[in-house]
Amino acid sequence: MKDADGGHIVSTLVGDANRNGYQQRKAGARRPRLRRRHAAPSFFGFIGERGGIFPQHERQNRKAGTENDDTDFHEIEMDVIREAKILLEEGSAPDLTWEMELVPGKKPGVPDSMELSYAFGDEEVSVERFNTSPATRVRLVAMRNNFLNSEALVIDGLQRLSYEAYGPEGFARGSDEVIHVLIHRGSRTMGYGYLIAGAQKTSRGLKGGKDEFSREALHDWLDECRDLAYSPGIGTWTTAEVHVFPDKPGRLDFFEEERLRKMSNGRWYPGAEPADAVVWTKQLLRYPRTAYSIPSWMWDVFRAEGVTPPIYNPEFKSVDWENRRRPVTERGTDFTVEPTVIDPSLEPGVFAKISKKLFGA
Description:
- With 361 residues, the chain is α+β, with helices and mostly antiparallel strands.
- 29% of the residues lie in helices and 24% in strands.
- It has 9 helices and 15 strands.
- Strands 8-7-6-9-10 form a 5-stranded antiparallel sheet. Strands 11, 12, 13, 14 and 15 form a 5-stranded antiparallel sheet that branches. Strands 3-4-5 form a 3-stranded antiparallel sheet, with no helix packed on it.
């Protein structure tokens, strides 16, 4: 096994007998939600005691506490150990490359994130990035929303919506707020809305009529916002909640999950049931994520329907699906480029990783 400096470690597979629990606890002392992390698993004979120790969020360290990121270091670590055990049971010697880079944060001694590169033998190198700061998943989403709301595209779009709602011919004149909730479904967008006047909240459909926002101002603008919000391998939002006011700046909130509503009888509105694997496949093909950035609830949908999703490949900066590959830019998949064919015999690691996430084997 290679360490971060490119050297080799010959593992004796002695377990964690060489780990000093006191040193691990001390590294995260006086820092809420942080735990000590070694730079590599003791399963592979990595040095113990004080070597390679750094603070890490407890969720990434041992799946404790509140979720702070879509990507889970602990899960990846366990996957690597399981694969090594399989190789040992088959009588093979695991040849693992494991390299880690820490990105400094604002607080001394506490990294903001870390990047892990790993591979067995000659298979392609997997690159994953993890949030190691104490920030929770909720705070991270809030930070992203705040960043996007400061972008000129979002500010100008909200101002146009405010004019359409509260201008001289606005459909919402006399109300205090307009709320529209839009859920992206691959090639279409669905949603619902409200008008708020004092204590009264009136439900409205989004029919695109003369008393609603124009398609250019709302739907086309949100398509641009989805591209702006996309981060390669991480993904973009699924639901956008637009808040528009007559006398102050508007606000745009983003959510990864579908924020659907039910009828008074507890059933889903016709045509507005939770998305199936076909819909999520289209979304991941347009805005691909790594296997570990796909939320667990989305994996549950794919498992239930036996569907293998498109996956972002950080090595080629591409989306891989059905033995095909297309390049991915900062704004999503580049559909102007014809897909190339992947030979599974030359790149078995890509499909093995997806299989483990999908079927657990």
